Amino acid sequence: MTAETGSRARQRERTRRALLREGRRLFAEHGYAGVGLSGIVAAADVTKGALYHHFEGKPDLFRAVLEEVQGEVADAVAAAADARRDPWDQLTAGCRAFLTASTAPDVRRIMLVDGPAVLGWSTWRSLDEAGSARHLREALTGLVRAGVLRPQPVPPLAHLLSGAMNEAALWLAGSGDPGDLDDVWAAFSGMLESLRSP
């Protein structure tokens, strides 16, 4: 790679990062419907042609922003779980980390509100499956195999718990009271405890 080629590659990456950064900020502040391409390119200080070089349009940019947000949440969940040794503690720490991360206003707006509406439920769900939901399913599978959880089919259980966490995160983000996280966690952890083997 020549110095000139490397410089162009770095510039393209800077442009892409600026579009993702400003797109995320604007989508979080105004919602998907409230943001136009002209606002995104002006905020990123690039041309519409530069945007179309990296993304097919606003939906494609939004999807890339959503994937970035979901990846950050999945990383937070994995880090919280990996900090524990006991598999049950890993599950509970990961679930709490998901609820905590999902209450951030930009995460809530992009991942939980606009994500399903913009991309459609099926596409949004498949992206969720690739991140946090996959980790949840793997953790539950291990706990069932180890006898920590009562024997039961894991896929429906994972979907039920994931749905409960998404709903709880939406409620928390709208409540505005930081103390509500403890109340939600008390209810959710009680649900988890009820699944344990005697």
Automatic annotation (TrEMBL):
InterPro entries: Homeodomain-like_sf, HTH-type_TetR-like_transc_reg, HTH_TetR, Rv0078-like_C
Pfam family, one: TetR_C_41
Annotated protein name in UniProt: TetR/AcrR family transcriptional regulator
Regions recorded as binding DNA: 36-55
Domain HTH tetR-type: 13-73
Key words of the record: DNA-binding, Transcription, Transcription regulation
